[in-house]
TrEMBL record:
Residues 82-196 form the C-type lectin domain. It comes from Apteryx owenii. Pfam families: Lectin_C. The chain crosses the membrane at residues 26-47. PANTHER family: MANNOSE, PHOSPHOLIPASE, LECTIN RECEPTOR RELATED (PTHR22803). Keywords: Disulfide bond, Extracellular matrix, Lectin, Membrane, Secreted, Transmembrane, Transmembrane helix. This is C-type lectin domain-containing protein. GO terms for molecular function: carbohydrate binding. It is found in: Secreted, Extracellular space, Extracellular matrix.
Length: 201
C-alpha cells in the first residue's frame, strides 16, 4: 500500500511537469505564429500603399543606382554597352532590308562604324561571323552611304582588300566578314546584323 502511494505521487508529479512544459511550448509557437501574421499583414499593407515600389519599378531607374550595372536598361540585357551607345548582335539571319526594319522595330538602326575603336568592339564581338551594318550603295552604284547620313567619304572605313568589288554587278549592301573586315554582297543574302541605339534616358 505504501509502495503504491509513493508511485502514484511520483507519477502524478511527472505528468504535471510534462503538461507545464507542453503549455510553455504552445505559448512560444502561438507567439511565433502571431508575429508571422503581423509581418505578413504589414507587408501587404505597405505593398498596397505603394511604399515597396522597388520590386516592380526596377526598370524605372536606368540612370540612378542601377546605371553602372545595366547602362542599356535592366529590361534589355541582350543590348551591350560601348562608348555611350547600346548594341544588339542578332541571333537570327535575314536580308539587309529585313535586318534594317528589325532594328527600326527595336527603336534602333543598323550599326554605323565610324571609328577604329568601334570597329575593334564589333570585330571582337562578331567573331568572324557575318553581320550586316548600315552601309549601302543601292541608290547609286559605287556611292556608299551610311544610313544615318554620316559622310562616307570623310570617315573611317575597313574594307577587306579588293572590296567593295560589286561582284556580278549586284553587291550593294555591306557586312562584316572574316576578321571583321567589310565586304559588299547582294542585299538579299541572309546574315546576322548589328543594331545600335543611344543609351536610354
Ligand atoms: C568579290 O566579292 C565576293 C564576296 O562579296 C567574293 O566572293 C569574290 O571572290 C570577290 N571577287 C574578287 C574577284 O575578288
Ligand atoms: Ca554595289
Ligand atoms: Ca564583294
Amino acid at each position: 500500500k505504501e509502495y503504491f502511494h509513493i508511485c502514484f505521487c511520483v507519477c502524478f508529479k511527472d505528468r504535471n511537469f510534462f503538461q507545464q512544459k507542453l503549455r510553455s511550448f504552445f505559448t512560444v509557437y502561438l507567439l511565433l505564429a502571431l508575429s508571422f501574421l503581423l509581418i505578413i499583414t504589414l507587408f501587404a499593407v505597405s505593398l498596397s500603399r505603394g511604399t515597396v515600389t522597388s520590386l516592380k519599378g526596377l526598370s524605372d531607374f536606368p540612370h540612378s543606382f542601377l546605371f553602372p550595372v545595366f547602362p542599356c536598361g535592366p529590361g534589355s540585357r541582350e543590348w551591350e554597352y560601348f562608348d555611350r551607345k547600346c548594341y544588339y548582335f542578332s541571333l537570327r539571319r535575314m536580308s539587309w532590308h529585313k535586318a534594317k526594319a528589325q532594328c527600326e522595330e527595336m527603336h534602333s538602326q543598323l550599326a554605323i562604324i565610324d571609328s577604329h575603336a568601334k570597329q575593334n568592339f564589333v570585330m571582337f564581338r562578331t567573331r568572324n561571323e557575318r553581320f550586316w551594318i548600315g552601309l549601302t550603295d543601292e541608290n547609286l552604284e559605287g556611292e556608299w552611304e551610311w544610313i544615318d547620313g554620316t559622310d562616307y567619304k570623310t570617315t573611317f572605313t575597313f574594307w577587306k582588300e579588293g572590296e567593295p568589288n560589286n561582284s556580278g554587278s549586284n553587291e550593294n549592301c555591306a557586312h562584316l566578314w572574316n576578321f571583321g573586315q567589310w565586304n559588299d554582297v547582294y542585299c538579299t543574302y541572309e546574315c546576322y546584323y548589328i543594331c545600335e541605339k543611344p543609351v536610354p534616358t
